[in-house]
Design a protein that fits this description.
alpha/beta, Rossmann fold, seven-stranded mixed β-sheet, globular, binds nicotinamide-adenine-dinucleotide, oxidoreductase activity, translocase, AlaDH/PNT_NAD(H)-bd, NADP binding, AlaDH/PNT_N
Length: 384
C-alpha cells in the first residue's frame, strides 16, 4: 500500500539479530528498495545483513539509512526474525510496534516485557494460514520450506554413501533409502529435495490427506496398520493419546531400521513435538545411517536422544542430527523469503499513510499481541 506523500514516512528499524547463531536478517536490500519506493523509511543497524551475505552498501544503495543500534531501535516499527530478549524491551517506547516470528506463546518473559513497555507485537507465528490473503505473509511456511530443503542436504552431507544410484566401472551403488516422518510443509520439501538427489523416498504422516501429496512427489506413502486418523483442527495434526503413540512407535520401529536416512518433521501446534523414533529404534539402525530431527528443541524432539544444534554419533554408528534452526543455515534464501512476508505485513498495517495496528483487518487482528481492545474477537481461522 503506497503511503500518502504528505504524511511523515513510517519508519522501519532492522536490527542485527541478538542470537549469535541466527544468521537471517529481517529485510533484504531488494525488499528495502521496494518499501522505500512505497514511502517507508528504513533504518538498518550496521552489519545487520552481513551473516546472510547482504552488505551495508547494498542496503544504502536500496535507499536505507544505516545507523547504530539505537537509531534502528527508535523506528516506528522494529522488524526482527526472532523474539527480542526481554532486556531489549526496555529500549523501546510506548506505541512502538515489533513484527517478527516471535512465537510469544512460548516466550512468556519477552511477551510480558513488551506488553509492560506498551509495545504492540505482530507475531507471525499466529498467522491464520488458511486465509488466502495471508499467504504472502506466511513466514511459518516460507521458513519451514527452507528448513525442509536444508534437512535433506544436512542428511546427505552426514551420509557416507551416495543418494542416487551410481553405475560406474568400479561397481554399482544402490540409491539411498530415505524415510520422511511428518509430511507438512518441511517434510514435503525434504521429500522433493531427496528425490531430486536421486534417493528412493518414503513419507509418513497421520493426516490421511498427506498421502496424495507424498505420492505426487514420486515418493511412496507408508501406511501403518496401527495408525490412527490424526487430522485435527485447521489442517493440522492432533496430539495422539499415550496408547496411540506407543502403538505408532512400535510399528514405526519395524520400518525405520530398514532405511539409511530418516528425517523427522512432526509437530502439533502448541504441544511438545511427538516422539516418533525411540532410542531403541535408533540402536537397531545400521551403522552409517543418519537421522535428522527437525523437531529438536528445548521442548524435546521427534527422536529420543537428539540434542538441538548438535550432531551425535551413537555407539552403533548412527549419526543423529538435532536440527533446531535449519532455516538460519541457508540465510540468504531464508531472509529473502522472510523479508517478503514481513513487507506484506507492513503494508497491511498501514492505512492512509499511517501505521495503524488497530486497523479492522482480519490478519492484523489475529497476529496482534495484546489483542486489540476495540475489536477483541480474533479471526475464526487464527491458530490458538
Ligand atoms: P506442522 O509443522 O504443524 O507439522 C508437520 C507435520 O507433522 C504435519 O504434516 C503433521 O500432520 C505431522 N504430524 C504431527 N504429529 C504427527 C505424528 N504423531 N506422526 C506423524 N506425523 C505427525 O505442519 P505444517 O507444515 O505447518 O502444515 C500443517 C498443515 O497446514 C498442512 O495440512 C499444510 O498443508 C497446511 N498448510 C496450509 C497452508 C495454506 O493453506 N496456505 C499453508 C501452510 C500449511
Amino acid at each position: 500500500m503506497a503511503l500518502t506523500p504528505d504524511a511523515p514516512p513510517v519508519s522501519v528499524g532492522v536490527l542485527r539479530e541478538h542470537d549469535a547463531d541466527e544468521r537471517r536478517v529481517t529485510l533484504v536490500p531488494e525488499v528495502v528498495g521496494r518499501l522505500v519506493r512505497e514511502g517507508f523509511a528504513v533504518v538498518v543497524e550496521r552489519g545487520a545483513g552481513e551473516a546472510a551475505f547482504f552488505p551495508d552498501a547494498a542496503y544504502e544503495a536500496a535507499g536505507a539509512t544505516l545507523g547504530d543500534r539505537s537509531a534502528a531501535l527508535a523506528a516506528d516499527v522494529l522488524a526482527c526474525v526472532r523474539v527480542p530478549d526481554a532486556g531489549l524491551a526496555l529500549s523501546l517506547h510506548r506505541g512502538q510496534v515489533v513484527v517478527g516470528l516471535l512465537a510469544l506463546g512460548g516466550h512468556a518473559d519477552q511477551a510480558d516485557a513488551l506488553t509492560d513497555a506498551g509495545v504492540v507485537a505482530l507475531d507471525l507465528a499466529l498467522l491464520p494460514r488458511t486465509l488466502s490473503r495471508a499467504q504472502t505473509m506466511d513466514a511459518l511456511t516460507s521458513q519451514a520450506s527452507v528448513a525442509g530443503y536444508r534437512a535433506t542436504i544436512v542428511a546427505a552431507e552426514a551420509f557416507g554413501r551416495f543418494f542416487p544410484m551410481m553405475i560406474t566401472a568400479a561397481g554399482t551403488a544402490k540409491p539411498a533409502q530415505v524415510l520422511v516422518l511428518g509430511t507438512g510443509v518441511a517434510g514435503l520439501q525434504a521429500i522433493g529435495t531427496a528425490r531430486r538427489l536421486g534417493a528412493q523416498v518414503t513419507g509418513y504422516d497421520i493426516r490421511p490427506s498427506s498421502a496424495d501429496e507424498v505420492r505426487s512427489l514420486g515418493a511412496t506413502f507408508l501406511r501403518l496398520t496401527s495408525s490412527p486418523e490424526g487430522a485435527g483442527e485447521g489442517g493440522y495434526a492432533r496430539e495422539l493419546t499415550d496408547d496411540e503413540r506407543a502403538a505408532q512407535q512400535t510399528e514405526l520401529a519395524g520400518h525405520v531400521a530398514k532405511f539409511d536416512v530418516v528425517i523427522t518433521t512432526a509437530q502439533v501446534p502448541g504441544r511438545r513435538p511427538p516422539v516418533l523414533v525411540t532410542a531403541e529404534t535408533v540402536a537397531a539402525m545400521r551403522p552409517g545411517s543418519v537421522v535428522v530431527d527437525l523437531g529438536a528443541s528445548d521442548l524435546g524432539g521427534n527422536v529420543e536422544g537428539s540434542v538441538p544444534d548438535e550432531r551425535v554419533v551413537t555407539p552403533g554408528g548412527v549419526t543423529v542430527v538435532g536440527a533446531g534452526n535449519l532455516a538460519s543455515e541457508l540465510p540468504t534464501a531464508a531472509s529473502s523469503a522472510y523479508a517478503r512476508n514481513v513487507a506484506a505485513v507492513l503494508r497491511a498495517a498501514v492505512r492512509d499513510g499511517r501505521l495503524d495496528v488497530d486497523v479492522d483487518d482480519d490478519v492484523i487482528r489475529a497476529i496482534r499481541v495484546p489483542a486489540a481492545t476495540s475489536n477483541p474477537a480474533p479471526a475464526e481461522e487464527a491458530r490458538a
